């Protein structure tokens, strides 16, 4: 009367049959109680009419039908609950059970094997055996499916580890790049500040030289107004020397600007500034060429004489 399953599952079925037998006994007692109640409450007379008998039978039918219906509902719900537990355990191992519902109509199997198994259990021959050993796992059936799932999980785990390592390497490289860019930006800012300070120094020096030149030129103009014609030529010579000094100062300024441009051109943020300075220098040179064609030393001398005379008239 074996069901073709292992000992562990067989013991579970034995326990379920005992539970079903206990529930069946309770329902039968309920049916017996319904008959007893009907007998004690309605069957006290010696004779009954046909209508009274029909009424008694209908009432008894209602009571028995309710008990039987309750038993059937309880049995079906119990079976469903057992199946849910089995399916949940199978899903934890990623298994898909495939019970054959058509076998539920196999009356020969139901009436013979399961009946014999239940009778054997009721006689005590089917008592659960303690300390049962599990059968060794083989490469077929459930163990094969478990092995396949484990291999898939291991492969997925390896891919995730590789992806995580790749992302960590990218994060580290990005952090290094950001640090390098930040350092380069700070260096460029410091270089800009330093070059700006140097340019301010050169500009200040040129303003000082120009002011000195203007003072000397003014003094020469005043002196020339007080000199004789013999001293005018000497004054013009001094003026030419002063102009020569101015040109030297301009050359020094151009050299300083070239040196500054050379240093600045080494950094990318100052290329635009270099282009602007070159354009300005070219414009200044063109203006100087145009002025040199029309303006002479005497022109500057007469121009400053007019300015001084206007200032003298205003003061007077």
UniProtKB/TrEMBL annotation:
Keyword Cytoplasm: yes
Coiled coil: 143-177, 239-297
Any one of the GO BP annotations: negative regulation of protein localization to cilium
Keywords assigned: Coiled coil, Cytoplasm
UniProt-annotated location(s): Cytoplasm
GO CC list: cytoplasm
Keyword Coiled coil: yes
Transmembrane spans: none
Quaternary structure (record): Self-associates. Interacts with BBS9; the interaction mediates the association of LZTL1 with the BBsome complex and regulates BBSome ciliary trafficking.
Similarity-based family: Belongs to the LZTFL1 family.
Job description of the protein: Regulates ciliary localization of the BBSome complex. Together with the BBSome complex, controls SMO ciliary trafficking and contributes to the sonic hedgehog (SHH) pathway regulation. May play a role in neurite outgrowth. May have tumor suppressor function.
Protein name: Leucine zipper transcription factor-like protein 1
Organism: Helobdella robusta
